[in-house]
């Protein structure tokens, strides 16, 4: 996609920028008829190494393990406030890195009415149900825990988390006070008509999909809230530009954060985990997140 080429170009320029003074000063020093002081060149080398070291430390050590709880409040056509915990792209690993340990601690404090997961729940090579259970068993909410499929093995998830109901192009309608809340879990492929029809009578309608690619379809189907992930916010973001790569048909339109499409609210999560190998385990200007959505009348 065009935006990826532009983003990669900007990223490349920013990556080599600290080395430019070294090249200029080094060339000048070598060409000087009389040997000039080497001190400016050494200082520029030290400055570049400092910049690269800080960026490496942030991108590979600090940010991947520095998750944040993002809280947003939205107006909704409901009579009774509803709190939703949105988890996406957990990419749960067997060794449970610090961000997963943080999630377990936060789950003990948060009291959502509903928990939803929008795919890529476990790392692709992690089929260890016992390992997954250590995190997923902590997911409890009065209205239940529901998910949609990303690159997940549903049979492994059923074993690891019987409390988690995966919705595959289907919907459920739940009572909430004297109203109802509909939740549909969709896949990018397949037919969605039955899922939309099953929740059409609900007073508040939520669409779960792994990617943002169905946002505009859901808005046309009169959904109130669309939750997704997949982009990881790019994992590497450039100031004033955003994600370099989103790997979606919608490109940068819904790359991360909250959006409004007609009367529908949408949120694309930056996710908690990291892309599997061979992608580098890096985040830059893109902290991992979980989202608490407070719906108010």
Plain-language structure description:
With 297 residues, the protein is an alpha/beta fold. It folds into 2 domains: 2-63; 68-296, 4-Layer Sandwich (Purple Acid Phosphatase, chain A, domain 2). The chain has helices at 2-16, 20-31, 39-62, 98-109, 129-136, 154-160, 193-198, 215-220, and strands at 68-75, 82-87, 114-118, 145-148, 164-166, 170-176, 179-186, 204-209, 225-228, 237-238, 242-243, 257-261, 264-268, 289-296. The strands form 3 sheets. It has a 6-stranded mixed β-sheet, covered by helices on one side. Helix 2 runs antiparallel to helix 3 (39-62) and helix 5 (129-136) crosses helix 6. The model has no long low-confidence stretch (mean pLDDT 93).
